[in-house]
Write a structure and sequence with these properties.
two-stranded antiparallel ribbon, 84 residues, mainly alpha, globular
């Protein structure tokens, strides 16, 4: 949830940590872990995000199941990552 809030709202890690009742370093570790995991599954994502100078980026793909496996079939985009 910490990473989702960070990616969706672009709130500072200090504010996110306070909201979740965790340390800022824990919020950073959670966020970094999720971003690295996403980067492993989409190696070109980081490059595209760095090159994109847009107000927002839409990400579309298969939703992971609770077991961490991709679901079968296409999905519709459910979130927008704002650039600020």
């Amino acid at each position: 949830m910490v990473a989702l809030v960070y990616l969706r709202e672009h709130t500072t890690l200090a504010k996110i940590a306070a909201g979740f009742g965790i340390s800022e370093s824990t919020a950073h570790a959670c966020t970094s872990t999720v971003i690295h995991l996403l980067a492993e599954h989409a190696p070109g994502l980081l490059k595209v995000l760095r090159e994109a100078d847009a107000d927002f980026v839409l990400l579309e793909g298969a939703s992971p199941s609770a077991a961490g496996l991709a679901t079968a079939g296409p999905t519709t985009p459910t979130s927008t990552v704002g650039a600020g």
